[in-house]
Design goal:
By secondary structure, the protein is mostly helical. It has 10 helices and no strands. The radius of gyration is 20 Å and the shape is globular. It starts with a helix and ends with a helix.
């Protein structure tokens, strides 16, 4: 039980860091909003993601936060896009690392798709960062000719995203966001390591990282966290790759699912209750 409690604490800490990272991004845009409002929107969005496909929770948190300052909706959306970009970049680097350190027995097929896809994704992301602003500057006038409101909103979103990617080239902006991003991923890995220890699973660091990688593969497929079947499949695949038997792998998947689903529900419930009392 103590290991499960530690895993819940580690997961909660990771999510709180994510909320704080989002706050820093928003303030870099000049969006003045309180940490309480940011946390409420972030955790309610996580709860929605438990049930809704296609990351519907991101739309919910965009709406909640924009309600406080409607004029900043484009900036808020851009920070969410930037957040996803940073996490995807970190995920790709971790995937490359994991692919190199996968055990040789029975994992050739996993390495065969993980290594080339991760390499291609890293190259693609670097191309976007280096050449994206210049390419967009050339083609933006062509899109300006369209008068539809959704096209104009899309242009505004892209401009805000590019602006954020440019200010990230400044060390004063980059280092805090990068540090928080690395801390987020470390605490998520720590959550897996704690569960490994509680179940008596002696696994290498790369096993905990593979759980993160395949977990994000499930998310990229737009599958909600609450979908038990896909969640269990990827969680079991992660540890069985390192020789864990099917029964123990299933126990790990059940506990991990409990931690991932219960944490945002408990934290968001606590935040909303505290908000009601203050109001």
């Amino acid at each position: 039980m103590i290991w499960l409690l530690l895993a819940l604490i580690s997961m909660a800490f990771s999510l709180l860091i994510k909320a704080y990272r989002w706050l820093i991004m928003l303030r870099n845009y000049g969006v003045e909003v309180s940490l309480r409002h940011v946390s409420e929107a972030y955790f309610v969005g996580l709860v929605v993601n438990l049930l809704a496909p296609a990351r519907g929770g991101d739309i919910v948190r965009l709406g909640m936060l924009s309600a406080y300052q409607p004029a900043t909706a484009a900036q808020v959306a851009a920070t969410i896009a930037l957040e996803k970009f940073l996490d995807l970049l970190t995920l790709v680097v971790i995937s490359l690392t994991v692919a190199v350190y996968l055990p040789p027995e029975g994992t050739l097929w996993l390495r065969e798709w993980l290594l080339p896809i991760s390499s291609a994704a890293l190259v693609g992301l670097m191309v976007v960062v280096v050449f994206g602003p210049g390419v967009w500057q050339k083609i933006e006038p062509d899109f300006r000719r369209f008068s539809q409101s959704w096209v104009q909103r899309g242009i505004s979103l892209i401009n805000n995203f590019i602006e954020s990617s440019l200010w990230l080239r400044d060390k004063a902006h980059l280092l805090p966001i990068l540090g928080l991003t690395l801390l987020v991923w470390f605490t998520m890995w720590l959550n897996n390591a704690v569960l490994f220890r509680g179940l008596g699973m002696e696994l290498p660091v790369s096993a905990g990282l593979l759980v993160l990688v395949l977990g994000y593969v499930r998310m990229l497929l737009a599958l909600p966290t609450g979908s038990i079947g896909p969640f269990y499949f990827f969680a079991q695949l992660s540890v069985s790759t390192f020789g864990v038997d099917s029964e123990l792998a299933l126990v790990f998947a059940i506990l991990l699912h409990a931690v991932v689903t219960l944490t945002p529900i408990l934290v968001s419930g606590g935040l909303l209750l505290a908000s009601d009392r203050k109001s």
